[in-house]
């Protein structure tokens, strides 16, 4: 399954100007030449580029259709391409003298503990790195005045942490001073910092990289992108997304059972998705339960003959029940009141579209004389706090491996990602240059419309 990437392949929105992705956007920074034989070198001898792996001196093409590549009008060698992920025969850091830090930031996501575990096991068992610490509660773990301790992370500490959801390190929101963060890295002699987080975390990491550069330090900063909303661009799918989406299907099914078991039953489910409705879209495709999906990317009209409420009324009267799934960022234009606030990281605090819809649906059906029983489900936190499923666990482990390989080879200001099933390195600047959205003209939304039978637009 591969969420749509509207406008992807050729362009990213950088500010208000459409920017065609080129070589410079894909160039990965390194701390210096790799002069040390990797402990993994022997295993790499027989490898070559195939459908299943890409060698370090090869590249992964950025465009994947003939029309996109053709529009570049350059020979094959000139096509934009990504550095492949994976182990290198020679590395930058000397494992015996390398000290590593790990931090998790932003909202929870299934698989955070799997990533921590994967990083520690790969570093310790395969590279022989012995000094690994975890910073507690996100970037505030670096700042002395919060008084957070650091956690020694060894294989026996992390062995079974993947059985639990959440992150053993804790997490937080809120910008911290990058100078103070780098002070902490220097105090602890950290050579590699792994940051596990979303767009905010990666922006914070870029600030840290800037200060590292200003101080002339050789510290690698490598990101493992994390977002329950699946809104990081250029990657197949963020880890934990499958788990969260599968969890969401349970609530949608429960809403469907409730709706079908009461006269005029309406099951209403609100799911996470601040700016991107991927969870809502995928979770309704899994089962034939939902009749309507409302997402931030597709504005909808509430009132009037062709509005959502009238459509729903007809649906309830004709079939006796209906199920509505709404992403939290949908329909914000319908929420009146004060200016929305911001959380500690500057993210907009959204109005509660779920409660608004519950009230409006009840009022509308009452006013039309339609008997109704509206059942409201808000499983938001329940879907992101669970342990990763087996698929996501395996995915997290592979991302962690890729991150360790990248960092040991001195790559910095980069995220590891799977893009079209290839593990690649993507510069952080590109990863935060835009958001991944459900494309209202794309295949995913088309599937949602087909599955639910809802109109293309409520207007
Ligand atoms: N613009 C920014 N510049 C520097 N640091 C930032 C910025 N935005 C956020 N951060 C830092 O990144 C951390 C996480 O950011 P945020 O709360 O936005 O979550 P996120 O990483 O985007 O994850 P998610 O959105 O998936 O929950 C914050 O603790 C904050 O210190
Ligand atoms: O309430 P919290 O922990 O700030 O997180 C809520 C937000 O986090 C996200 O899951 C993104 O990480 C959004 O979908 C949601 O709006
Ligand atoms: Mg974010």
Automatic annotation (TrEMBL):
Catalyzes the phosphorylation of D-fructose 6-phosphate to fructose 1,6-bisphosphate by ATP, the first committing step of glycolysis. It comes from the Bacteria. The lineage of its organism: Bacteria, Bacillati, Actinomycetota, Actinomycetes, Geodermatophilales. SUPFAM superfamilies: Phosphofructokinase. It is an enzyme of class 2 (transferase). The active site is at 229 (proton acceptor). NCBIfam families: PRK06830.1. Substrate binds at residues 227-229, 272-274, 328, 381-384. Residues 99-406 form the Phosphofructokinase domain. This is ATP-dependent 6-phosphofructokinase. ATP binds at residues 107, 173-174, 198-201. It is found in: Cytoplasm. Its cofactor is Mg(2+). GO terms for cellular component: cytoplasm. It catalyses: beta-D-fructose 6-phosphate + ATP = beta-D-fructose 1,6-bisphosphate + ADP + H(+). Homodimer. GO terms for biological process: fructose 6-phosphate metabolic process. The record marks 200 as: Important for substrate specificity.
């Amino acid at each position: 399954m591969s969420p749509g990437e509207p406008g992807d392949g050729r362009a990213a929105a950088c500010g208000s100007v459409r920017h065609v992705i080129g070589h410079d956007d894909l160039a990965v920074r390194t701390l210096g030449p790799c002069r040390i034989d990797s402990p993994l070198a022997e295993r790499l001898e027989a490898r070559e580029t195939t459908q299943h792996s890409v060698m370090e001196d090869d590249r992964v093409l950025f465009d994947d259709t003939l029309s996109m590549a053709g529009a570049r009008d350059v020979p094959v060698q000139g096509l934009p391409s990504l550095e492949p992920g994976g182990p290198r025969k020679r590395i930058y850091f000397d494992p015996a003298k390398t000290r590593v830090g790990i931090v998790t930031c932003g909202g929870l996501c299934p698989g955070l503990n799997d990533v921590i575990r994967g990083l520690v096991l790969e570093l310790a068992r395969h590279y022989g790195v012995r000094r690994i610490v975890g910073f507690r509660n996100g970037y505030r773990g670096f700042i002395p005045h919060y008084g957070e301790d650091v956690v020694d992370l060894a294989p026996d500490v992390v062995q079974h942490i993947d059985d639990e959801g959440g992150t053993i390190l804790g997490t937080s929101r809120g910008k911290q001073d990058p100078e103070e963060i780098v002070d902490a890295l220097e105090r602890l002699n950290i050579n590699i910092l792994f940051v596990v987080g979303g767009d905010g975390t990666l922006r914070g990491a870029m600030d840290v990289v800037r200060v590292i550069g200003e101080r002339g330090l050789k510290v690698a900063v490598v990101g493992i992108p994390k977002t329950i909303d699946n809104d990081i661009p250029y990657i197949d799918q963020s880890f934990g997304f499958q788990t969260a989406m599968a969890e969401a299907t349970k609530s949608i099914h429960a809403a469907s059972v409730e709706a079908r078991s009461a006269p005029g039953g309406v099951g209403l489910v609100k799911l996470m998705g601040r700016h991107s409705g991927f969870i809502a879209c995928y979770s309704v495709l899994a089962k034939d339960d939902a009749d309507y999906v409302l997402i931030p990317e597709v504005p909808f009209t509430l009132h009037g003959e062709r509005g959502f409420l009238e459509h729903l009324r007809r649906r309830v009267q004709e079939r006796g029940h209906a199920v509505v799934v709404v992403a939290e960022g949908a329909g914000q234009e319908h929420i009146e009141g004060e200016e929305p606030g911001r959380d500690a990281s500057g993210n907009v605090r959204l109005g509660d579209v779920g409660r608004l819809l519950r009230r409006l649906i009840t009022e509308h059906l009452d006013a039309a004389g339609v008997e109704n029983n509206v059942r409201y489900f808000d499983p938001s936190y329940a879907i992101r706090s669970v342990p990763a499923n087996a698929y996501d666990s395996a995915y997290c482990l592979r991302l962690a491996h890729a991150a360790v390989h990248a960092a040991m080879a001195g790559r910095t200001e980069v995220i590891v990602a799977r893009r079209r099933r290839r593990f690649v390195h993507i510069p952080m600047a590109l990863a935060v240059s835009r958001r991944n959205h459900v494309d209202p003209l794309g295949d995913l939304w088309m599937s949602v419309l087909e599955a639910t039978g809802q109109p293309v637009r409520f207007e």
